[in-house]
Amino acid sequence: MTTRPITRSAFFAGMLGLGLLVAAPDAHAARNADAENYVQENATAALRTLADTAVGTPQRRTQFDQLMARFADMPRISSFVLGRYGAQLRSDAALRTEWNRTFQEYSIAVYEDRLGRFNGATIRVTDSTERVAGRDVIVTTEMQPRGGRPQTVQWRLLRSGNVWKVVDVSLLIEGNQIWLAQQQQRDFLAQLDRNNGDIRALMTDIRQLTASLRQRVLARNS
Amino acid sequence: MRGSITLITLAAALAAPALAYAQDAPAEPAPVAQVEPAAAAPVEPATAPSEGDPWQGFNRSMFAVHESVDQAVVEPVARGYRAVTPGPVRQGVRNFLRNLRGPVIFANDVLQGQGNRGLTTAARFAVNTTIGVVGVFDPATSMGLEYHDEDFGQTLAVWGVGEGPYLFIPLMGPSNVRDTTGRVIDSVLDPLSYLDGDDATTFRATRGVLTGVSVREQLLESVDDIRRDSLDPYSTIRSSYELLRESAIQNGQGDVQDLPEFDDISASEAPAATGDYAQHSELNETPVTAQHLDESEVKPTSRVNTGEKK
Asked: Tell me, what's the ipTM?
């Protein structure tokens, strides 16, 4: 029986393999402190803005609009929620601009309408998971409404350049999870399917809804 | 008779998973639209079959029947129930009804090969039935025995059975062929189904009515929101049901790798000009192909029908 000497390259290859094995679980479970801080700061600021009854509705809307511009990647969300019909936006810049504006105004109106239920809520980051290291991260938070039960909320962030942006939010309800942009996409797709993919028809419906939501907010605050 | 009572009274209960989130959903400052998109605009009901909903014409008719009965009977009863019972009492009722489902959940845990979850369910049932005074209180949760639900529809999914067409049944709510079958099997798995005598029949009927009223009471605000704000309440309920069922089959949070891609279709073009938005937007330079666009659409994960489970 002969023994073969271990060469230097074989030794280093073995060490590298061991290192990868050891590092793999850690990489899978890696948290991203940068993304966590981003969510903590901006979500807290957004909650504070939405709950700030010291300012008038128009001013609060402007503040939230600006905050949303920093926090959310609206171009991505706006096209995502249209699913396969989003291809129309690529070839029609005017339609894209109009759709983005319509969808953003609708989103803001929705959150203003829901404001009253979450006045005084706080948020705390509890975990994060890197879907794509340094670029696509899921941040888990616990939202505590005043006098209500804690609610697990997850935020999906994508990094564009050096800036994090939220593209989706999920709620965990009694152990079951729902991603809001995904549900929004399904609802819009159902509506578009019924209108032969007419995005302008969808915009007409959404504008009516936005107006209705704003009237309700105004009536509540007056 | 028992079957019809069960059918009627479990109605809202079965619709609950699809809707319950809306009530609890915080108005978090998420940039995406709200849980129930909304519909101020009246929309003509569609009758043409669509993907995943080949029975849409029938389903929409059933949904209309459901809405009529709900508004005439179920909702007023639920509002009355809320008006005359304090919150802690309603919570006790919810705990009691949930505890009664323990054996069914345990059976499905076992059938899915989820031993640890089965043990948790059994321990919860034992603790809450004894210390918790037949389930009125829920000390098990504070002991770290978290509640989870399982039904035979989920078990079938874990075994690889496809969901089949979407199906809306008046008073039972959203479902599909697989989950409707699962509900029938769940009644077979329920030990209370095998009790005999007038008292047993009365108990089952009372349980059924109480379940329907209790669940509908929990959903009052959610249903109001959907009716008022949804572009199409039928579609909203369907999409909620589908997404939450997918999550339930995966036992909650799915694999993050299954999440869809978010491509930026605007590429180097100018973004929307609302507010300060244009100044802050970061645009992605990645070119988007038609294939990418198709991939961005949400599809049910393959995990659902492969028997793979977390």
From this structure: 0.78
